[in-house]
Amino acid sequence: MRNERRTAHVLEVMTPTQNSTGTDQRRIRPAAYVLAVLLGPLLGPLLAGCGSEATDPGANVSDVPTTSSPTPAEDPKVAAAIADLAKRQGVKSEEITVVSNDKVTWRDGSLGCPEPGKMYTMVLTDGVRVVLEAAGKTYEYHGGESGPVTFCEHPQEPVPGKASSDAPQ
Known about the structure:
By secondary structure, this protein is of the alpha+beta class. The protein has 2 domains: 47 residues, no CATH class; 90 residues, no CATH class. 30% of the residues lie in helices and 22% in strands. The protein has 4 helices and 7 strands. The strands form 2 sheets. It has a 5-stranded antiparallel β-sheet with strand order 6-5-4-3-7, covered by helices on one side. Strands 1-2 form a two-stranded antiparallel ribbon. The chain is elongated. The termini are far apart.
């Protein structure tokens, strides 16, 4: 019974009516306005940047705020990157230097480390870039705000702008 009333209401909202000239027109009930008001704030941010990257990938992104992250010694992402590089290169973790540990904005879902043949979301993505040095060579680890960092053999630069670094000076 309850669903029947809802169905009847939906049919009433969507049923053509005749105006004074005798032509059919659809009436929009106040509920439709309430729906637009409720969904507008949710959909607006998703649609706000649509198409802007197609003409200028760096447009208006230098103002993206960044915040400071934990020091390298406290950051589990840096510790994981050091452990991975030590294993990859066969060196002791003490022989690895943290060059930088930055919060960055990546141009897409590849997090600055695209793999050939894969497709990625085309949305600016907040994340981190950890740059390490071992035996005079630098290595990059990229990741999102959450989740692990991964070794990036062919790194791409993040969106230009202010990056906060926690590397030792």
